[in-house]
Amino acid sequence: MRAPFQVLIIPYKHEGVETRFLLGRRNDNDVWQAISGGGEERESLLESAKRELLEETSLVGTNWQQLDSMCMLPKVYYTGHKHWINHRYVIPEYSFSVQVTGDPKLSPEHSEFRWCGALEASNLLDYDSNKIALWELCERLEIHLG
């Protein structure tokens, strides 16, 4: 059963001196975003993030880090929200970063993936929560967006 929280995952890899970030274009709304999904009942935040990364990209990562960035999202966006009686209006979205190697495989949720530099990724992202999490990750990795 769907748990009342969302996870956002920003996969990255180092290519030479450059760090690249993985974004996916969603099939349902044609929006570029980081990997995201809902928690399942009894999963920890990190377990949910690892499962979503694997389900959506077939990637497994290392150096998982929960970021400070988080936001609240309208619960009505998600299936099963009527059962979340302790969350009247919104649910939390927790952000993670993860270092990966290799390339993702498309899942039914995405029409394409793209490895981007920090500035390109920031410009492609539509949602503020994704942009803020990317900014925080860049700060942690000492990459300046400009």
UniProtKB/TrEMBL annotation:
Domain Nudix hydrolase as annotated: residue spans: 1-138
Transmembrane intervals: none
SUPFAM superfamilies for the chain: Nudix
InterPro entries registered for this protein in UniProt: NUDIX_hydrolase-like_dom_sf, NUDIX_hydrolase_dom
Organism listed in the record: Aeromonas allosaccharophila
GO molecular function: catalytic activity
Gene3D superfamilies for this protein: Nucleoside Triphosphate Pyrophosphohydrolase
Protein name: NUDIX pyrophosphatase
Domain of life of the source: Bacteria
